[in-house]
Amino acid sequence: MHTPVTVIGAGLGGLTLARVLHVHGIPVTVYEAEPSPSVRSQGGMLDIHDYNGQLALEAAGLMDEFHAIVLEGRQAMRVLDRDGTVLFEKADDGTGGRPEALRGELRRILLDSLPAGTVRWGHKVGGARALGEGRHEVTFDDGTAVVTGLLVGADGAWSRIRPLLSTATPEYVGTSCVETYLFDADTRCPAAAKAVGGGAMIVPSPGREIFAHRESGDTLHTYVVLSKPQDWFAAIDFTDADAATARIAAEFDGWAPELTALITDGDTAPVLRHNYALPTGHRWDRVPGVTLLGDAAHLQAPNGEGANLAMLDGAELGKALAAHPDDIETALTEYEQAMFPRSAEVATYEGVEVHRIDSDDNTAHGLVNTFTEKDQ
């Protein structure tokens, strides 16, 4: 097999690249390990920023489709103290540059924009090797293989394509997130629903935070972030949902009941996610015929920018290839020279993935003193 552009990974970054290439008439094939687009939930809400994610959607010609899936009012923000006191509140007046949408819906509009057969499902990469002269072979666990003149690793934190370019591996950043959902919250847990409000709620505290978001209707998605070593989490049996929930809730003893209810009254078993990052400023020397985007290229501690950056990476790479269709190396060099500093300069926080509080919002910055933001 030979394809002009081979993309590994059908996440938001890889699909954005495929869509931009399709817009410019460049053939592309995306290989994805999962057997189908519906095999698992794609996660919660994403705020798509006007300075990166929305630029990618514009390049993909999908702004109308994006506006159709935006959940109104979800840019609202509340900061609470551990006793439930509201420290800061900002309504969604419709003028913010970070509209919210469900990740699964965003992925759907990208998939729907591609010709049938663009994504080859059920192709888990076993390995990749250079063949010389910019050509690479990717082998899959089912025994098949593809040879390509342009290989793009869009396969996330544990990329199987990254070793072609870099020896870097992700390292644990010292925090982990436990997720749970609370359904029908307005009627079943009205105090918790009121605490969260119409958008996002943050309760910052040294070493532990609760972040919750109202998704569709009265569904609340809670992220509990703890600064603990991995061994601490390994001692918890997450196959026993009740016991795991009780152990996590114990870390918030003395907090307001409407806040701890987001943990104890959840309708789904708690899901543990460790946070990893590649070295700050990760980059590589130009290798002919291959590049990376998104978390494969610049995995960072959660900061609210990952999906947006991946989409912009995909769009910018697609545009560079369209601008230099007969000179792949010039296109890849142009893309990487812009991508490296862009990914290194995003805002970073100490703690939970949150929605950036505007830099002119001094009140909020004073209250949420566990988070630090880099100027950009």
TrEMBL record:
SUPFAM superfamilies: FAD/NAD(P)-binding domain
InterPro entries in UniProt: FAD-bd, FAD/NAD-bd_sf, TetX_monooxygenase
A Pfam family hit: FAD_binding_3
Subcellular location: Cytoplasm
Cofactor: FAD
HAMAP family found in the cross-reference section: TetX_monooxygenase (MF_00845)
Quaternary structure note: Monomer.
Entry protein name: Flavin-dependent monooxygenase
